[in-house]
Specification:
Layout lengths: L5 H13 L3 H13 L6 H10 L6 H6 L6 H13 L3 H13 L6 H10 L6 H6 L6 H13 L3 H13 L6 H14 L2 H13 L6 H21 L1
Helix pairs in contact: 1-2, 1-3, 3-5, 5-6, 5-7, 7-9, 9-10, 9-11, 10-11, 11-12, 11-13, 12-13
InterPro entries: PPR_rpt, TPR-like_helical_dom_sf
Keywords: Repeat
Family: Belongs to the PPR family. P subfamily.
């Protein structure tokens, strides 16, 4: 009989979770422990990302499985997804308390779900550099409140800091221009994206076209 190893069990658990077959995933988890195959932090991360109500804290301590930054970040994201911001912030404080340094993904998750949470100052003090995903979330937040000027300032800051934009921040800016009625600016940003060597995706094209049709509709109504 070929007995699966840790990697195989974790892969199979993840596959069942991906198909939302959580009972089968948990049954495999119990089986691996019966066979004295010790789960690692990845196994627990996969399980808790899909079954957040599962209480594994004591078990992880007993098995000397130490949470890492990925574990904490995924758990924070899971609780944010469940709209339990109190628990998400408690986990964030706990990871720092036990000496695990949050990374840019951790801060991006928090920023995306708790906009009022001031991440920038703390990131600077811990020397955590923002990446394109972090900046895109910042830009998108300003777009949601219709502050195109601040969104463009953040985009400029991203460029100055040496972070190379992909299509996502451009698309967020185009959508913001459309939302605030600055369609020429939307076209300028779209052209800038093309000139930088990026291929516009369906979302950025849709954002530009939606604004153009809206503008044409308004002009038609005015005549």
């Amino acid at each position: 009989e070929i007995i699966p190893d840790l990697y195989t069990y974790t892969t199979m658990i993840n596959a069942y979770c991906g198909k939302n077959e959580l009972k089968q995933a948990y049954a495999l988890f119990e089986e691996m422990k019966r066979r004295e195959i010790k789960p690692d932090v990845v196994t627990y991360t996969v399980l808790l990302n899909n079954i957040p109500k599962l209480d594994t804290k004591r078990e992880m301590i007993d098995l000397d499985v130490k949470p890492d930054v990925v574990y904490y970040t995924i758990m924070i994201n899971t609780y944010c997804r469940l709209n339990n911001m109190k628990k998400a912030l408690a986990l964030f404080k706990d990871m720092k308390r036990v000496g695990i340094k949050p990374d840019v993904v951790t801060y991006t998750v928090l920023l995306n779900n708790i906009p009022e949470f001031d991440t920038k100052k703390e990131m600077k003090s811990l020397d955590v550099k923002p990446d394109v995903f972090y900046y895109t979330v910042l830009i998108d937040q300003q777009c949601k409140i219709g502050d195109l000027k601040e969104a463009e300032r953040i985009f400029g800051e991203m460029i100055e800091s040496g972070v190379e934009p992909d299509a996502a921040p451009y698309t967020a800016l185009i959508a913001c221009c459309r939302k605030t009625g600055y369609l020429r600016e939307a076209k300028r940003i779209f052209d800038l994206m093309i000139d930088s060597g990026l291929n516009p995706d369906r979302v950025s094209c849709t954002a530009l076209l939606a604004g153009s049709y809206r503008n044409a509709s308004v002009r038609k109504e005015d005549t």
